[in-house]
Specification:
Layout lengths: L1 H9 L5 H19 L6 H18 L3 H5 L2 H16 L7
């Protein structure tokens, strides 16, 4: 996923298809990680973020759909849940 992000960024202004690809990949990765966490707060926060990423990816303008307070809050929830579990991340 990192290589795809770097390639998209290097190509210039990302298209709606680029954002869809990024958000779909993000949903897949966080959902995969969440599936290993049971009912922990980290897993719950990751699942919430994945749902929002999936919804944004399906929108006609994925970038605009992801630019909202719910998506931002979901990222903050991941950061807070990880911190409470002793892991330092910034989402």
């Amino acid at each position: 996923m990192k290589a795809a992000l770097v390639a998209i960024a290097a190509a210039g202004e990302p298209s709606a298809a680029d954002f869809k690809k990024i958000l779909t990949g993000l949903d897949q990765k966080v959902t995969e990680v969440a599936s290993t966490g049971g009912d922990s707060k980290v897993a719950t926060a990751l699942r919430e973020f994945g749902v929002l990423a999936s919804k944004a990816a399906a929108a006609p303008d994925p970038a605009a759909a992801a630019d909202n307070t719910a998506f931002e809050k979901a990222g903050a929830n991941i950061t807070a849940a990880c911190k409470a579990a002793g892991v330092s991340v910034t989402f």
